[in-house]
Amino acid sequence: MELETSVYRPNVAVYDSPDGVEVRGRYDQIFAKILTREALNFVAELQREFRGHVRYAMECRREARRRYNSGAVPGFDPSTKFIRDGDWICASVPPAVADRRVEITGPVERKMIINALNSGAKVFMADFEDALSPSWENLMRGHVNLKDAVDGSITFHDKSRNRVYKLNDQTAKLFVRPRGWHLPEAHILIDGEPATGCLVDFGLYFFHNYAKFRQTQGSGFGPFFYLPKMEHSREAKIWNSVFERAEKMAGIERGSIRATVLIETLPAVFQMNEILYELRDHTVGLNCGRWDYIFSYVKTFQAHPDRLLPDRVLVGMGQHFMRSYSDLLIRTCHKRGVHAMGGMAAQIPIRDDPKANEMALDLVRKDKLREVRAGHDGTWAAHPGLIPICMEAFTGHMGKSPNQIKSVKREDAAAITEEDLLQIPRGVRTLEGLRLNTRVGIQYLAAWLTGSGSVPLYNLMEDAATAEISRVQNWQWIRYGVELDGDGLGVRVTKELFGRVVEEEMERIEKEVGKDKFKKGMYKEACKMFTKQCTAPELDDFLTLAVYNHIVAHYPINNSRL
């Protein structure tokens, strides 16, 4: 979609914005309750105070990427050894979230929020990031939904089922995941520049909900957050400063806000102690964001043809580098007195095939038993149907203990080295692996462009992380003319081979989804974008950033006060 040029239309309703703030998204009276002058002013204050720090952190990321592309590899920073070796601990975990044995995640959609809070999980992570397509409508409705959820008034009338959804008396604790530092919010301009997406997400949610949340959910603590995509402790330091600034604005105790950091980039695994140290008054732990971690491994080593991954279905927690990452995370968190959260079970129930369903559930069961036995304090599920299995695995091992912070120290993981964390994964590469990457990547992107960021594909709930793995792996295989050694054919991946695969997979997608849906959907547009990304001379950092402008919709606005 082309960005519309703004024009002056005096009769069009506009948001009551403070000086220097311009809201370019569609006006809606319901959204105006979120985008109040006071809330926008708080977001603008955060933007002005921290934008220089954010710019510097993003430049540091680019500099690190240049080093890796010149042959360097990530490692532990000698200058912060004193932090890794120190005896410090983080602030105590608030009693309200001591037990997080099963967490469910999903986008900030109204029905999803109700079902997730009612699911029986201990925590619901409401997502503005990888499970959400960040259109203006999705973002603003998400804030309306969360405000209603926190004050307990949220309901949803499903007209097709003639059913009204509302909250149970007992609900999961709410965590919110804002976007990463790298993503802009193009519908809100501050001093003529797009706002930082995560500061919009955090600022609006915090401003409207901190008081009620602390009363109803946090027992005097909160709100609670998940923080994505960080690569270095300097980024955690910015978040810590944002939290302190918010606490000061609200007049609440320092250390009220708490966050779990996703360790989902390869550079961050070498910074876990440092990240916790910067957030030591505001953290409740780290989480193994394993799908994004695999994406980051490929991206970090994009210029290292000796570090190519096998088919992505073979890159599981059994791989040495993945197991080392998980074990070191557990040791680090428990040494510092906070939660070590496990990874996502992305399976969804297969209702029309009981045998396949049981096999899928058995994989989930084994994965969760591995996690709890390793020492994780909790785990993630993408679907309410998986919660009983996850709960059974963790409760069967932990009993009534809320977590394993004090009981499982994993001192053995102290021996994990840089080499362990970087070990090249073993396995073959196949034409079917290339096909699956292509099929999943195109279908996910087509859904994202039409407003869905959490997409069921082939019995898995996929978010942006899967599309990212698909994209970067295809790019790397094409770039280096990789031999598909698992087929016995010895075929090498070329642009021509990839072009034929794309054509054949588009035909398959059309058959699978049906001609009508294929015609009405954005599959052809998604195919062009995905193909361009996979064959580009330079690898884009993020798929969602590269295609973001296609979902930006600027509306006519009143005269700017910039």
Automatic annotation (TrEMBL):
This is Malate synthase. The keyword Disulfide bond does not apply. It catalyses: glyoxylate + acetyl-CoA + H2O = (S)-malate + CoA + H(+). Gene3D superfamilies: Malate synthase, domain 3 (3.20.20.360), Malate synthase, domain III (1.20.1220.12). PROSITE patterns: MALATE_SYNTHASE (PS00510). Residues 173-424 form the Malate synthase TIM barrel domain. SUPFAM superfamilies: Malate synthase G.
